[in-house]
Fold these 2 entries.
Entry 1:
Amino acid sequence: MATLDLAVIALYFGLTLGVGLWVSRRQQTAGDYFLGARDLPAWAILLSIVATETTAAGYVQVLACGAAPGASSALRTGCSQPGRPLRAPPPRSP
């Protein structure tokens, strides 16, 4: 790895540790950690629920595609990629 790569990784870990330590100052009990001290805005709870459901649906979808006939091509056809329309198209051959 190049020096710049290691510097970016170290910066990322440092920022993650710093944010974790800063947020942990306000938590007094396990309930504060698991329930967000019952002081979370509705939009944060909504995003958490949507992210959880999206991840769970993705796992089920991959398993269903793997069990379908032609399972070897399931990943190539985009069966496991619900966000495929948002991706850039593959490059064209010259």
Note: The two ends are 33 Å apart (CA to CA).
Entry 2:
Amino acid sequence: MTETPPHPTQLFPGGRVVSGHTTLLDAVETAAQARGALKTSRLAVSGAFHTRLMQPARAALEDALKQVEFHAPRIMVYSNVTGGLMGADVSVIPGLLARQLVEPVQWCV
């Protein structure tokens, strides 16, 4: 499986979020510390969500979403992949949810 390269997050502009297999994370952590990184932290997660490593699960999610009846949001809901407000067009929701599985979160675009 191909490891994913680091991608910046808009949550904290001076920081970076890196996802990938342990060998990649070990190398990035070592390189960051050698270059003077103030801190590196690993998050305890149950999956590589919001990365291409989840691509094998995308088709199953898309199939499952076909069984769901979506309704227009009654409160403000923002898309993780666009950073924008979800509108009344519920036809876009399944596609956005499938993209959310494999794309970085856009906090406030």
Note: The helical segments are 22-34, 55-65, 93-102.
